[in-house]
Structures are given as C-alpha cells and as structure tokens.
Amino acid sequence: MSLLATEPTRAAAVSKESPAGPARRRRGRAVRGQLTAWAFLVPALLVFGFFAWWPILRGLLISFQRTNLTDPPTWVGLDNFRSLFADPLLTTAVGNTLLFVALAVLIGFPAPLLLAAVISTVRRGAGVYRFLVYLPVVIPPVVAILLWKWFYDPGSGLFNSALGLVGLGPYSWLESSGSAMLSLVLEATWAGMGGAVLIYLAAMVGIPGELYEAAEVDGAGVRRRVWHVLLPQLRSVIGLLLLVQLLNTVQVFTEPYVFTGGGPESATLTVLLLIFRYAFQDGAYGQAAALSCLMVIVLALLSAVYLRVTRTWSSS
Amino acid sequence: MPRIPRRVALTGSLAAAVALPLTGCSALTPSKASSDGDLVLRVQGMPPATEKPALALFKKQVAEFEKANPGIMVKGSTTVFDPLTFSAKLSGGNVEDVIKVPLTEPQRLIQQGQVQPITGQLQKWDHFKEFNPQVIKQLSSGDGEVYGVPQYPYAQGLVYNRELFEKAGLDPDSPPTTWDEVRAAAKRISERTGRAGFVHESKDNQGGWQLTMLTYAFGGDLEKLENGTYAATFTGEPTKKALRLLKDMRWKDDSMGRSQLNNQNDVIKQFAAGQVGMFMGSPGTYRLAKMQFGMADTDAFGVAAMPQSGGNATLTGGDVYLVPKSADARHAAAAVKWLTFAYAQPQYSTTAAAQQAKSLAEDPKSAVGVPTLPVFDAARQARIDAAIKPYANVRTEHFEPYTEGLAGLDLKAEPPYQAQRLYTALDSVVQAVLTKRDAKIDALLAAAEKDVNAKLAADQK
Prior knowledge:
The structure holds 2 protein chains of 2 kinds.
Chain A (H helix, E strand, L loop, with lengths): L1 H15 L3 H43 L2 E2 L7 E2 L3 H8 L1 H21 L1 H12 L4 H13 L2 H11 L6 H8 L14 H26 L3 H9 L4 H12 L1 H16 L3 H6 L11 H11 L3 H31 L1
Antiparallel strand pairs in A: 1-2
Chain B lengths: L5 H23 L10 E6 L7 H17 L3 E6 L5 H9 L7 E4 L3 H6 L7 H4 L10 H4 L11 E8 L1 E5 H6 L11 H15 L2 E4 L6 H12 L5 E4 L2 E4 L4 H16 L11 H9 L3 E6 L3 H8 L8 E5 L7 E10 L6 H20 L1 H12 L16 H11 L11 H7 L3 E3 L6 H17 L5 H19 L2
Parallel strand pairs in B: 1-2, 6-9, 11-12
Antiparallel strand pairs in B: 3-11, 4-11, 5-9, 5-10, 7-8
Helix pairs in contact in B: 2-14, 9-10, 9-17, 11-12, 13-14, 14-15, 17-18
C-alpha cells in the first residue's frame, strides 16, 4: 500500500525535469552498474593475471631468451626453437606421444563404452559395478602407478605370476621398448575410464526403450541393435569423450615419469616429459618454454575443434 | 536478505583486490631482519623434529653462534634442496641464505651463476689452507674461487650384502677388488641364492652417473676440454669395456636380477630387503638403508673400495653448504661465519667432533662412525676418527675393506661441464644394454656422444 501511495509523487517529480534528465540518469545508472561489475571483476582479474596470464606471457618471452632465472636474460631470437628441432629426442618424444594417443584411443576409448553397455544390462547390483568401475578414479594417480609397477614387476609381479600358472612368460612389461608404452596405456585406461563409464551409462538411460523394442520387432539381433540404435543415440557423447580423451592423452606425463622415467631407451619419453627434462634436469628453460609454446599451439587447435564440434551438437 | 550498499561492495572488492596480492607477497617474501633489528640468517640443514638428538645439537650450535655473534639471529630450515624447484625459488627470492646440496650439484650451480663465491671471507678462517684440495676443488670454479664448505665427503665404492656372500660361499671379509672378481661373485650369488648378484642403476640420470663411476674404474673419462670448449668423450675404450661387462653380466651370466629400470632409491630399497648382492654406492648408503628403508639386519651391510680394472680411480660425493646468489653482502658475510662455525670448525676440532658424535649416538636410529673422506689432511682425519670411535654405533670393521682400499685410489670429480646432460644421454645407453640382448654398444655410444656434443656446443656459444 505504501508503495502505491508514493508512486504519484515520484511521477510528478519526474514530469517536472527537463527532457535530458532521464537519459542522463539512465547513463549514470549504467556507469554505476558497470563500476560495480568491474569492482567484482578486479580480484578475479588480478588472480588470473598474477597466476595464469603473466606466467603464460613470461613463458612466451622465455622461449626467445637464454636465462637461468636469476641473471638478466639475453635475447637469442629463434635459437631455442632451432636447438629444439636439432634435438633428435624431439622426434622420438612426438612419435611416442602419438603412439600413446593412438593406443589410448584404440584400447582406452572403446573399453568404457563396452563396460557401460555390459553394466546397463545388469538387472541386480548395477550400483556395485558402477562403484567398482569408478573406484580407480579416486585412487591418487601416483599410488595407482606404484601399485601397477608391482603388477608389472618382471620377477615377482602379479601379471607374470598369474601368467606363470598357465606356463606363459615371464615378460618384461616395462623393460622392453616394445611393450613399455602399451603397459602405460593399460594402466592409464584402468585408472581413467570410471568417469567415462558413468557418462555413457547416464546417456544410455536417456535412450527411449521403444527404439530397442521396435528394432526387436523388426528382427534385429543384439549386434544390429547396438549398431543401429545404441551407437547413433550416443553419437554426440562418444564424439565429446573422444575429443576429451585426445586432449588429455596428448599431455601424458605422470605415467612415463613415475613408471619408467622415459625409458627404456627413450621408448616412453613423451613431449611433456621432454619439457620437464629440459627445464629441470638440464636447466635449459628457453628450450623448455619453446617446446611448451609449440605444445600450446597443438592444444589450442584441438580445443578449437572441440569447441566447434560441441557447439554444433548443442545447436542441433 | 539485506542488500549490501553499492559503495561498501565497491570499496570491499577493491580493498580485497589490492590486499590479495599484497598478502600473498608478504607471506612468500622472507623477512630480512627481526623486530629488534637483528639480521635474520635463514639456513638449511636443520634436522627434522623426528631426529631429536641431532635437532638438539643444531639448536645448541645456534645458541652458541648467536652468543658469539651478537646481531645475527639464525633461523633453521628443514627444507631440503630440490633441483626441480631451486631456480624458481631463487628467482622469487625465497631461498635460504645457506643451502645444503649434494656434491653432484655445485658445479652446475656455479656454472649457472646461482651461488656466490665466498673465498675472500673463508680465507680468514685459520685452517682454510688445510682443506683437502681434492675435496675443495669440487666446490670451486675454474678460476679458483671457492663456493662452499664440504660435509662428510665420501668416495664411491662397492656396497655388498655380507649375508648373501656367506650363503654363496664367498668370504665377506675379502670382497672383490677387480671387476672380473665382481662378475664372478655376482654370478655365484645369483646361482646359489637366487638373488640379483649385482644391480646397476639406469634411470633418472643415475644410469649415466653410475656409468661414470665404471668408466673411471676402467681408466677413462667422459668429458674433455679442448681449446676452451668442453666436449663429451663417450666412445673411449674404457666406457666400452664397462658396458661390455654389464652386457655379459646381464645376458651371459644372468646375474643382474630381473628388474632393470632402477634409480638409486629402488636399488637401496631392494638391498635393504636382502634382494641384492652388490651395487656401486658409498658408505653413506648405510644411513639410507637403515633409516629410510628399514634394513633389519644392518650387520649384513658391507662396503669395499671401488673395484678397479685399470683406472685406479673413483668418483667422489658428499654434502656441501653454499651461499646462493640471492643473499646480499651482509647476509653472505653472516652465512660464511655460520659455515665456519657450524661445519668447518666441528670437522676440524676433535673435541667438537666427539661432542657431535656423542649427541647423535643417543638416537638408536642414527649411524655414527660411517667413514668419510678427509675434509682436511689424512693425519687430521685420523685424529677425528679416533675421537669419534668411542661413540660409533656401526660395525666399523665392516667398513674396513672400504677405508683400506680407498687409500691408493685417485679421487675424481664428476664431469665438469653440464654433467646432468651427459647422464641423460648415457641413461638411454645403459638402458639399451640392460634391456636388449643385441644392443650395439659402439653405435649407441657414438650416437649419444654426437647428440650430447651438439647440445654442449650450443650451450657454450
């Protein structure tokens, strides 16, 4: 009631002002609103500036400098990039990273889809299976790797002991350049697929049962139902997870660092591990920054594809 | 919910924005002076709270130092030198005024200009000229400037399990003195006990580091200085011989166990568990085996001087206290006072050494009496050893093959320029030899030498 009573007064006051008044007031209100918005933005901008953008910019600068981080740096132009491309380990590292990505896509990508499909058919105790599949995700990565290191131990490891029972092995899982990368991918798949399984399961719940029933009525077997109903319905989720998988696996570091240190014979030396070696073992910060910049370009391209694809899917 | 007035929100946000970085900076930037104007000297090397007697001894030293040097307040730090983060911390001004580093690091830090020379002030100490030149050379630059004070220097030797020796029918009091004998002993241990006879490290640059020891023992070097430029020399016959020995032990004798990708900790852990017969290491690995990896039967620990095959030399190691470049002139001066008071003088004075040994021996987990290289001359070291002996809690007779054999060996430092780059390249070579039956040693060494020389040349431009 009181609000209603004041309205005529406010209206009368407004009517007495010049025509330019409301516009000025609107502008003033807009400026004040912007100021408030900026005031709230400034802390976040400062934090990002100090801890994200400045280090990124500094990294870019260092890629054109020779520095020990204490003395004043000297500009060396493209020298860091030149010595980078002259290093035969770069080709090895890029090749190994691509091998890891390929193996992770071949093994690590279909595995969670398959597992989700199996779990979705379970009538009783599906929760237990979901829990068991997700469990490795909550184990700290280094702990999981140390556990698998014991599994892979060529002497008393779990895998060789188990295979020995049926007369196979022993195999040098991590110590043969032929099998080391595959061993890393197997652990990474086990450790990381829990999240993907849950996403697939959630997506599968959303597929209307009528589609399966209709396919069944049309005489489709399990394989055709998977091929013609399940996979097309999961198309967008599969594509999304594939891109996420690519982005993650290109940056693989923890597994080769803890399992093998990049060996044997650089067979598991990845790009990130090479950056780490340049910076922290050799003190070649310029080269490390140069390779990081190249890595950023690759990741930016992958991210652009990711954003483009997800936008297309969300609009469709 | 009550609305926050715009002006209050604005002021609060701006205040937070300004305060956030400031509080961050103030939390990270160490104070350089105490509230009463004393100079605060931050020093690494303070033992952790779990090592009570050693910590008590450190605090006592601090109190005595502060009494003798009014105006200086020592603040101990349990921070351990980490090569991965050191440069970043130094750049941010967060490194202590005294750092403790292993002997593998000083040359790299000197070459990168991250530590400062202390020759001028250290020379004022009465016994400066009595330092063991072989030890002090490793803390010095090419132009003779000294950068630090050594503590417990040692030479690499052959660590062996006396119990496994006995089980294999070998005499633990007569460990191998040549590499042919090491090969024979390793084969026997492996055949009779099923344990690894001999293990060689191969990753985290430690494969290259241990191949350096082997190369020295075979009479070679891994780096040469020509016309003022350093270059790697991997293709010498001694390095090839050393690798051929490893290849034979691994593939002909099968005496190196199953696990081949190991760093130092992996090897000591296996040794402490009684799984390894022999490995190249120092007497100081006794401490690691006992205190870090819980070696139950420390009586099985034995160490001999580095076996030789024509080199008559071994690699040295130890701890070193240095002053980083970030310390200003006043702090650097106070730091050198602390170094002479806390590390140089106690290693010179028999009374101080005995007091230290007595305090440390109170901790049953400690290792007192582990032999070190002379920090000064041999006669002084003999007097120090005699002063410590009553408090020794290790079986000193199990270290005798080391001390007796060491006397005739030449003590060599690590490759002087960019040693870690050399080790990275050699890691791959060692790994290839240990994991591939048909590894071509000559080709591997030639390729590694070519790669590393390209990097060294670029660094020296």
